[in-house]
């Protein structure tokens, strides 16, 4: 009894509960005459889950085994993976124009009409709309890919393309040196 209590305590420490089978049948069928079938195989699942809360026992799948396979259906929900985004390259002409436009938006913001909550909400919504328009006008669409890192630049692309064409070890080492030095420079400025 002590071992089973320890098992329940351990499962609880990992936020697991004993799963109830959808079809309560024995999980071990004895081949020995006079020995009864038993429920010896158990499954623990995530505690409090509505979707992952039971398992099935498959007596017809056991073939020559005396233990029955246990299965659980794991729901996989659709997920939207964004493959592009709007971006302003740092220290670019587009960034300068955007910042200038935002400064002008604030400069010419009419705050004289702020007399109550409704007028404040109107001004704030107008401000948000104009900044959003400036962003959409100046930002450009970029594809998100494995090299979508802030430290990735055109030197990397050139070095990587050179290696891909030549497949030369010397070009690979040159690419790795370029990556290392540019990353170090980028993160030193961040630190």
Describe this protein's structure.
The protein is of the alpha+beta class and 191 residues long. It folds into two domains: 2-71, no CATH class; 86-190, no CATH class. The protein has five helices and seven strands. The chain has a three-stranded mixed sheet with strand order 2-4-5, with no helix packed on it. The radius of gyration is 31 Å and the shape is flat. The mean pLDDT is 82.
What's this model, at a glance?
With 191 residues, the chain is of the alpha+beta class. 44% of the residues lie in helices and 12% in strands. It folds into 2 domains: 2-71, no CATH class; 86-190, no CATH class.
Q: Which strand order spans the largest sheet, edge to edge or round the barrel?
A: 2-4-5
Largest sheet: 3 strands, mixed
Structural Rg: 31 Å
Beta-strand percentage? 5-15%
Estimate the helix proportion, in percent.
40-55%
Shape type = flat
Poorly predicted runs: none
Overall pLDDT confidence: 82
Number of helices: 5
Overall structural class, as computed from helix and strand content, comes to alpha+beta
> What is the helix/strand order?
HEEEEEEHHEHH
Number of strands: 7
What is the terminal-to-terminal distance?
Answer: 56 Å
Structural domain tally: 2
